[in-house]
Amino acid sequence: MAEWVQNVMETFGYAGILLLMIVENLFPPIPSELILPSAGFAASRGSLNVVIVLVVATLGSVIGTLPLYYIGRAFGEEKLVAWADKHGKWLTLRGKDIRQADDWFDRHGTKAVLFGRMIPGIRSLLSLPAGMSEMPLPKFLTYSAIGSGIWAALLIGAGYLLGEHYDRVEQYISPISRVILVLLVVGVVVWFVRRRREQAAGA
Protein backbone atom coordinates (compact mmCIF):
# COMPACT_ATOMS: atom_id res chain seq x y z
CA MET A 1 0.00 0.00 0.00
CA ALA A 2 2.79 2.45 0.93
CA GLU A 3 4.56 1.85 -2.38
CA TRP A 4 1.33 2.37 -4.33
CA VAL A 5 0.67 5.67 -2.50
CA GLN A 6 4.20 6.85 -3.29
CA ASN A 7 3.76 5.89 -6.96
CA VAL A 8 0.52 7.88 -7.20
CA MET A 9 2.23 10.95 -5.75
CA GLU A 10 5.28 10.62 -7.97
CA THR A 11 3.09 10.20 -11.06
CA PHE A 12 0.43 12.84 -10.40
CA GLY A 13 2.05 15.14 -7.84
CA TYR A 14 -0.38 17.43 -6.02
CA ALA A 15 -3.32 16.06 -8.02
CA GLY A 16 -2.42 12.61 -6.72
CA ILE A 17 -2.53 13.82 -3.12
CA LEU A 18 -5.89 15.49 -3.76
CA LEU A 19 -7.30 12.29 -5.26
CA LEU A 20 -5.92 10.08 -2.49
CA MET A 21 -7.43 12.27 0.22
CA ILE A 22 -10.83 12.29 -1.50
CA VAL A 23 -10.76 8.51 -1.80
CA GLU A 24 -9.53 8.12 1.79
CA ASN A 25 -12.74 9.69 3.09
CA LEU A 26 -14.86 7.26 1.08
CA PHE A 27 -12.75 4.13 1.56
CA PRO A 28 -11.11 4.26 5.02
CA PRO A 29 -8.87 1.21 4.30
CA ILE A 30 -6.71 3.78 2.44
CA PRO A 31 -5.71 5.69 5.59
CA SER A 32 -4.63 9.30 5.82
CA GLU A 33 -2.03 8.22 8.36
CA LEU A 34 -0.24 6.58 5.44
CA ILE A 35 -0.97 9.17 2.73
CA LEU A 36 -0.05 12.32 4.61
CA PRO A 37 3.27 11.26 6.15
CA SER A 38 4.25 9.96 2.71
CA ALA A 39 3.44 13.39 1.27
CA GLY A 40 5.49 15.00 4.04
CA PHE A 41 8.42 12.76 3.16
CA ALA A 42 8.11 13.74 -0.51
CA ALA A 43 8.17 17.40 0.54
CA SER A 44 11.27 16.82 2.68
CA ARG A 45 13.08 15.59 -0.44
CA GLY A 46 12.20 18.82 -2.23
CA SER A 47 9.95 17.26 -4.87
CA LEU A 48 6.86 18.95 -3.41
CA ASN A 49 6.20 22.19 -1.53
CA VAL A 50 5.07 21.41 2.00
CA VAL A 51 2.62 24.35 2.19
CA ILE A 52 0.93 23.38 -1.08
CA VAL A 53 0.83 19.76 0.11
CA LEU A 54 -1.04 20.89 3.24
CA VAL A 55 -3.52 23.00 1.27
CA VAL A 56 -4.18 20.27 -1.29
CA ALA A 57 -4.51 17.55 1.37
CA THR A 58 -6.98 19.65 3.36
CA LEU A 59 -8.98 20.46 0.24
CA GLY A 60 -9.12 16.80 -0.78
CA SER A 61 -10.21 15.78 2.70
CA VAL A 62 -13.02 18.36 2.73
CA ILE A 63 -14.23 17.40 -0.76
CA GLY A 64 -14.20 13.76 0.32
CA THR A 65 -16.66 14.49 3.14
CA LEU A 66 -19.38 15.70 0.76
CA PRO A 67 -20.74 12.37 -0.60
CA LEU A 68 -21.53 11.02 2.88
CA TYR A 69 -22.86 14.42 3.96
CA TYR A 70 -25.31 14.49 1.07
CA ILE A 71 -26.30 10.86 1.68
CA GLY A 72 -27.17 11.92 5.23
CA ARG A 73 -29.13 14.90 3.91
CA ALA A 74 -31.02 12.65 1.50
CA PHE A 75 -32.27 10.49 4.35
CA GLY A 76 -32.80 13.26 6.88
CA GLU A 77 -34.27 13.15 10.36
CA GLU A 78 -37.93 12.70 9.44
CA LYS A 79 -37.30 9.77 7.11
CA LEU A 80 -35.15 8.08 9.73
CA VAL A 81 -37.77 8.66 12.43
CA ALA A 82 -40.48 7.18 10.22
CA TRP A 83 -38.26 4.20 9.38
CA ALA A 84 -37.35 3.61 13.05
CA ASP A 85 -40.98 3.74 14.16
CA LYS A 86 -41.95 1.27 11.45
CA HIS A 87 -38.99 -1.09 11.17
CA GLY A 88 -36.61 -0.29 14.01
CA LYS A 89 -38.08 -2.62 16.62
CA TRP A 90 -35.62 -5.42 15.85
CA LEU A 91 -32.80 -2.94 16.51
CA THR A 92 -34.59 -1.64 19.65
CA LEU A 93 -34.50 1.70 17.83
CA ARG A 94 -37.34 4.20 18.09
CA GLY A 95 -38.07 7.44 16.34
CA LYS A 96 -37.61 9.11 19.72
CA ASP A 97 -34.01 7.88 19.81
CA ILE A 98 -33.34 9.42 16.40
CA ARG A 99 -34.74 12.76 17.55
CA GLN A 100 -32.62 12.70 20.72
CA ALA A 101 -29.49 11.92 18.71
CA ASP A 102 -30.35 14.71 16.28
CA ASP A 103 -30.92 17.16 19.15
CA TRP A 104 -27.53 16.21 20.59
CA PHE A 105 -25.84 16.82 17.24
CA ASP A 106 -27.63 20.15 16.89
CA ARG A 107 -26.09 21.21 20.23
CA HIS A 108 -22.63 19.69 19.85
CA GLY A 109 -22.26 19.06 16.12
CA THR A 110 -19.69 21.77 15.48
CA LYS A 111 -17.37 20.37 18.17
CA ALA A 112 -18.02 16.83 16.97
CA VAL A 113 -17.05 17.71 13.40
CA LEU A 114 -14.06 19.84 14.43
CA PHE A 115 -12.45 17.33 16.79
CA GLY A 116 -13.87 14.23 15.13
CA ARG A 117 -11.97 15.03 11.94
CA MET A 118 -8.81 14.42 13.98
CA ILE A 119 -9.85 11.02 15.38
CA PRO A 120 -8.82 7.95 13.38
CA GLY A 121 -11.62 5.50 12.75
CA ILE A 122 -14.53 7.94 12.88
CA ARG A 123 -13.28 11.01 11.01
CA SER A 124 -14.97 9.94 7.76
CA LEU A 125 -18.20 8.71 9.37
CA LEU A 126 -19.08 12.04 10.99
CA SER A 127 -20.29 13.38 7.65
CA LEU A 128 -23.40 11.17 7.85
CA PRO A 129 -24.87 12.56 11.11
CA ALA A 130 -23.89 16.07 10.02
CA GLY A 131 -25.98 15.62 6.89
CA MET A 132 -28.83 13.89 8.71
CA SER A 133 -29.08 16.73 11.23
CA GLU A 134 -29.03 19.20 8.33
CA MET A 135 -26.03 21.08 9.62
CA PRO A 136 -25.66 24.08 7.29
CA LEU A 137 -23.17 23.25 4.55
CA PRO A 138 -20.96 26.37 5.08
CA LYS A 139 -20.63 25.55 8.80
CA PHE A 140 -19.93 21.87 8.05
CA LEU A 141 -17.27 22.75 5.49
CA THR A 142 -15.65 25.35 7.75
CA TYR A 143 -15.26 23.06 10.76
CA SER A 144 -14.31 20.12 8.55
CA ALA A 145 -11.59 22.24 6.95
CA ILE A 146 -10.21 23.38 10.32
CA GLY A 147 -10.16 19.88 11.79
CA SER A 148 -8.82 18.32 8.60
CA GLY A 149 -6.16 21.00 8.29
CA ILE A 150 -4.87 20.41 11.82
CA TRP A 151 -4.85 16.64 11.28
CA ALA A 152 -3.08 17.02 7.93
CA ALA A 153 -0.50 19.42 9.36
CA LEU A 154 0.38 17.01 12.16
CA LEU A 155 0.80 14.00 9.87
CA ILE A 156 2.57 15.88 7.07
CA GLY A 157 4.90 17.44 9.64
CA ALA A 158 5.64 14.04 11.13
CA GLY A 159 6.46 12.61 7.70
CA TYR A 160 8.62 15.63 6.91
CA LEU A 161 10.62 15.25 10.12
CA LEU A 162 10.90 11.45 10.04
CA GLY A 163 12.05 11.37 6.41
CA GLU A 164 12.60 7.81 5.21
CA HIS A 165 11.01 6.50 8.40
CA TYR A 166 7.67 8.22 7.67
CA ASP A 167 5.90 4.84 7.72
CA ARG A 168 6.34 4.73 11.50
CA VAL A 169 3.44 7.20 11.77
CA GLU A 170 0.99 4.66 10.41
CA GLN A 171 2.51 1.92 12.57
CA TYR A 172 1.74 3.95 15.69
CA ILE A 173 -1.67 5.30 14.67
CA SER A 174 -3.21 2.17 13.08
CA PRO A 175 -3.55 0.34 16.43
CA ILE A 176 -5.27 3.41 17.86
CA SER A 177 -7.74 3.38 14.94
CA ARG A 178 -8.53 -0.28 15.57
CA VAL A 179 -9.04 0.33 19.29
CA ILE A 180 -11.45 3.20 18.58
CA LEU A 181 -13.46 1.08 16.14
CA VAL A 182 -13.62 -1.79 18.64
CA LEU A 183 -14.81 0.59 21.37
CA LEU A 184 -17.49 1.93 19.05
CA VAL A 185 -18.70 -1.58 18.25
CA VAL A 186 -18.68 -2.53 21.93
CA GLY A 187 -20.62 0.62 22.75
CA VAL A 188 -23.29 -0.22 20.16
CA VAL A 189 -23.56 -3.80 21.44
CA VAL A 190 -23.88 -2.64 25.07
CA TRP A 191 -26.57 -0.14 24.07
CA PHE A 192 -28.41 -2.84 22.12
CA VAL A 193 -28.32 -5.33 25.03
CA ARG A 194 -29.51 -2.73 27.53
CA ARG A 195 -32.43 -1.74 25.33
CA ARG A 196 -33.39 -5.40 24.93
CA ARG A 197 -33.36 -5.84 28.71
CA GLU A 198 -35.40 -2.67 29.23
CA GLN A 199 -37.96 -3.88 26.73
CA ALA A 200 -38.11 -7.32 28.37
CA ALA A 201 -38.52 -5.78 31.83
CA GLY A 202 -41.30 -3.52 30.62
CA ALA A 203 -43.18 -6.30 28.82
Automatic annotation (TrEMBL):
Keyword tags: Cell membrane, Membrane, Transmembrane, Transmembrane helix
Pfam families: VTT_dom (PF09335)
Domain VTT positions: 30-160
Entries under InterPro entries matching the protein: DedA_domain, VTT_dom
TM annotation in the entry: 12-30, 50-71, 140-163, 175-193
UniProt topology in membrane: Multi-pass membrane protein
The UniProt record lists the keyword Transmembrane helix: yes
Chief subcellular location: membrane
Source taxon at top rank: Bacteria
Compartments reported by the entry: Cell membrane
Family matches, as PANTHER family: ALKALINE PHOSPHATASE LIKE PROTEIN (PTHR42709), UNDECAPRENYL PHOSPHATE TRANSPORTER A (PTHR42709:SF6)
The protein's name in its UniProt record: DedA family protein
Organism of origin: Deinococcus oregonensis
Taxonomic lineage: Bacteria, Thermotogati, Deinococcota, Deinococci, Deinococcales
